[in-house]
Inverse folding.
RNA sequence: GCCGGGAUGGCGGAAUUGGCAGACGCAGCGGACUUAAAAUCCGCAGCCCUUAAAAGGGGCGUGGGGGUUCGAGUCCCCCUCUCGGCACCA
């Protein structure tokens, strides 16, 4: 008993000892995970996980994201690919600045310190990142190129400055892009803070120039989740329609003599009984003149709309409006219709003006009923060819908004179907010069100005004499000055740094003022993955030939919360760079995977809820291998994962079992040659299970990505090995099978539990690095079952199981089944109608 | 309101093409080892009925209702709940 104890200690799986040993060894080799250069003859594989914001420490969501990516990277290494697996830091952003304000720590210092810590965590977790390619977006060597790109955009008319109503988050003390406002009107970072509307002069990037291509190319992204493509399609919001000019009756003002409306239903234009304008419509002043009560009314409507927008409930607004006292002429029938102003008309969609057709639009109908406007039916629920007639019995239930329709009361267009009418009427409007077909998008240009310090300075100058001009490219980067004392009172912090603001005009040599806003951090993440291909390149953002080799990214992995924001900006940026001639690909990402959230007690982990599980804690208690493997085992990667500590223990127990098994039999298998060449039934069973396991794991990597089931398969295999332990201990088990099984077990484990796999590989006497060892080949002959157990049903109910040699012809299967006692008992005295045999699976006997 | 995902034991989940529902893991129960416990190993384990008990047998069962089929967690129709996205977008 006493002599048993040292042996027990030796067999205990101690992840700390094993992981620290291999950690030290791996750290000593900086090129261990380095990709080969782009002239490599090997096939490339670019696997990428979304880069983190260096908030201070990794959370479980990160660990899950990176565990998926790392398993894949390791697998592809073992398949012989030239794997690019980089990591970096989305290092500009508000938390650093807020921490600086609170604790008087310079944002740079705070950020770099966090990066050091998180990088150490990543290394400890054993991820295969090529750190020589690390990208840190807050460093001048990186953000210099943000500035350079911005200048190219400016030159190409893709960046412009405009005063407009913008989303303002009081908590962030800066402007937000449309994509950064949640649907309830709150800030994406401060889910409790309502975003306000402010009028500001801002820099915009013309994403809408690529709206059509961004939409069209979604169809090519077959390896993206359908869900993400749908979300982007909705976000771009393409809508086909027509613009139609309505002449204003009476004197024209400075804003012109007509109102242009956008409509998708020009076929209903004969039913237009009023024009409705957004309260902010530029024509408003002309129309209402100096009627004070009307002015006040328009102000009210504007305020109501603003409030509803802020509440994120523009859809729930109670419709109000007012008659402006003026009329417009419907160009199709020369009819005079009243011009109204209404709080439900949005200035930032279409033209901010609509023709109101109460009979065939729900909103117009509601409004018309409220204010007693005329409701005129101009379409019937009919197809062409069917007899038409404005019979009262045939009046549709109003509002009738279906497309399937036939025109009535529409002059020369009567009798046309909806589609014909849209074509003919658009053409008619175009011929007569008062309208045309058009396409509008919900997508807006991207406002990138931020009134904050910790970001890329926008490289623009404002000269009193020469006007707006970009900083000359040879003067880049415009360095972000060090600042410790940051306050958010009164706009951009940089405006209070005279050394920064004051500059010399490159044209006239006179005094000029720098732009003091910084860029949205989504600029940084829009192209960082190109920089990885040549991260230290000094004179260009990227090398085209290198990008050609590595792109597109073969697999991108990250949270679905970026489905619109980051992923639409990135796609835009790629198209822009392609048109600059910098890259040749039109899309950055070939295959996208969005993993689910990590939750605890049914809720997303957050400090507020106090349900945060620390990766450091898990690693300290169970080891990196168990932590990573549990993150893969607990749920399929695309679904949410409920973190259960008992589950981590379970995975840890499995690794212990694996460890003990190889420690016991790894060496004996190698030295013993007993029973070599003779494969016992137990040996055959292990061989079979081994190859079935190889197939399951390999298949999951190749397609399905259900790592939870391949971990389960490996668990089954170790259970099977323990099932023959007695035979092994007695020396009745074929040594070659045992040795082979253990070697391949370790190889299968390598992508999931790299530390333990490395240790056991060494125990088995292997010298090479697992990452460079070929993945085990699946042998279908070895995986084949000798005997198949058929499930036998009678009228669909399971009645018996009958074992039949594999590949038995159907007749033999039938014979064996009919000979079975239980089956005969079930069939007793009944008439067999038919018998269905599913080869290799099941027999169903149908009786009467 | 529109679009998309999901609902399977006490829990996380499995069932890949319409073919044995509940793999694997957790929790639970029983046994072995131990003075004892932990650890470990082996076994049982959806629910209900039948039985003194066990063996055995039978019925029900994948959110609810209907359908197709020899056969449905899987396909079709209707409904409920839930999570996500969008929402006077003219």
């Amino acid at each position: 008993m006493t002599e048993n104890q040292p042996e027990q200690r030796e067999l205990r799986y101690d992840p700390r000892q094993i992981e620290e040993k291999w950690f030290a060894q791996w750290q000593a080799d900086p090129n261990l995970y380095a990709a080969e250069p782009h002239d490599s003859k090997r096939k490339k594989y670019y696997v990428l996980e979304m880069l983190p914001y260096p908030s201070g420490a990794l959370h479980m969501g990160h660990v899950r994201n990176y565990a998926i990516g790392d398993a894949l990277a390791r697998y592809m290494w073992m398949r012989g690919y030239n794997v690019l697996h980089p990591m970096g830091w989305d290092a500009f952003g508000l938390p650093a600045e807020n921490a600086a304000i609170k604790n008087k720590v310079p944002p740079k210092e705070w950020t770099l310190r966090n990066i050091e810590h998180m990088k150490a965590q990543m290394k400890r977790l054993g991820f295969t990142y090529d750190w020589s390619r690390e990208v840190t977006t807050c460093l001048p060597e990186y953000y210099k190129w943000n500035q350079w790109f911005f200048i190219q955009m400016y030159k190409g008319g893709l960046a412009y400055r405009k005063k407009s109503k913008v989303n303002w988050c009081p908590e962030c003390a800066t402007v937000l892009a449309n994509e950064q406002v949640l649907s309830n009107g709150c800030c994406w970072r401060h889910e409790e803070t309502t975003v306000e509307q402010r009028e500001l002069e801002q820099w915009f990037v013309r994403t809408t120039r690529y709206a059509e291509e961004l939409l069209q190319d979604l169809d090519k992204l077959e390896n993206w989740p359908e869900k993400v493509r749908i979300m982007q399609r909705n976000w771009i919001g393409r809508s086909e329609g027509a613009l139609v000019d309505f002449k204003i009756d009476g004197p024209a003002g400075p804003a012109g003599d007509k109102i242009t409306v956008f409509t998708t239903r020009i076929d209903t234009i004969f039913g237009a009984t009023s024009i409705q304008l957004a309260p902010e419509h530029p024509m408003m002043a002309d129309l209402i003149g100096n009627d004070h009560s009307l002015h006040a009314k328009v102000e009210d409507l504007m305020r109501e709309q603003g409030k509803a927008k802020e509440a994120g409930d523009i859809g729930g607004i109670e419709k109000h409006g007012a008659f402006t006292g003026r009329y417009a002429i419907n160009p199709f029938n020369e009819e005079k219709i009243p011009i109204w102003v209404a709080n439900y008309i949005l200035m930032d969609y279409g033209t901010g003006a609509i023709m109101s057709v109460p009979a065939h639009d729900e909103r117009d109908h509601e409004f018309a009923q409220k204010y007693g406007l005329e409701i005129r039916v101009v379409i019937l629920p009919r197809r062409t060819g069917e007899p038409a007639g404005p019979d009262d019995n045939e009046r549709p239930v109003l509002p009738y908004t279906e497309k399937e329709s036939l025109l009535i009361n529409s002059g020369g267009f009567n009798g046309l179907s909806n589609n014909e009418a849209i074509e003919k009427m658009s053409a008619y409007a175009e011929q007569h010069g008062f309208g045309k077909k058009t396409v509008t998008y919900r997508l807006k240009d991207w406002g990138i100005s931020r009134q904050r310090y910790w970001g890329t300075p926008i490289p623009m100058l404002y000269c009193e004499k020469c006007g707006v001009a970009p900083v000359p490219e040879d003067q880049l980067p415009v360095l972000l000055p060090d600042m410790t004392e940051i306050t958010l009172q009164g706009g951009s912090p940089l405006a209070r740094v005279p050394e920064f603001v004051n500059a010399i005009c490159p044209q006239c040599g006179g005094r000029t003022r720098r732009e003091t806003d910084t860029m949205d951090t989504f600029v940084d993440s829009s192209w960082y993955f190109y920089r990885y291909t040549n991260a230290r390149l000094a004179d260009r953002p990227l090398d085209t030939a290198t990008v050609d080799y590595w792109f597109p990214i073969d697999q991108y992995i990250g949270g679905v919360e970026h489905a619109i924001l980051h992923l639409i900006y990135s796609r835009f940026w790629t198209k822009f760079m392609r048109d600059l001639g910098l890259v040749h690909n039109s899309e950055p990402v070939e295959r996208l995977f969005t993993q689910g959230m990590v939750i605890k007690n049914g809720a997303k982990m957050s400090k507020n809820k106090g349900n945060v599980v620390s990766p450091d804690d898990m690693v300290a208690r169970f080891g990196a291998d168990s932590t990573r493997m549990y993150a893969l085992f607990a749920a399929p990667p695309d679904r949410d994962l409920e973190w259960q500590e008992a589950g981590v223990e379970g995975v840890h127990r499995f690794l212990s079992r694996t460890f003990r098994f190889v420690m016991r039999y790894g060496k004996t298998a190698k030295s013993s040659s007993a029973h070599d060449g003779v494969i016992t039934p137990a040996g055959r069973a292990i061989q079979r299970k081994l190859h079935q396991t190889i197939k399951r794991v390999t298949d999951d990597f190749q397609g399905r990505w259900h790592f939870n089931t391949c971990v389960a398969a490996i668990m089954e295999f170790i259970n099977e090995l323990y099932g023959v332990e007695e035979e092994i201990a007695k020396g009745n088990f074929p040594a070659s099978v045992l040795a082979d099984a253990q070697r391949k077990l370790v190889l299968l484990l390598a992508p999931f539990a790299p530390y333990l796999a490395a240790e056991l590989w060494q125990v088995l006497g292997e010298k090479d690095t697992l990452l460079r060892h070929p993945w085990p080949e699946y042998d279908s002959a070895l995986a084949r079952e000798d005997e198949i157990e058929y499930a036998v049903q009678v009228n669909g109910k399971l009645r018996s199981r009958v074992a039949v040699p594999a590949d038995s012809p159907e007749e033999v299967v039938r014979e064996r089944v009919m000979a079975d006692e239980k089956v005969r008992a079930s069939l007793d005295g009944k008439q067999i109608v038919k018998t269905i045999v599913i080869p290799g699976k099941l027999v169903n006997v149908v009786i009467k």
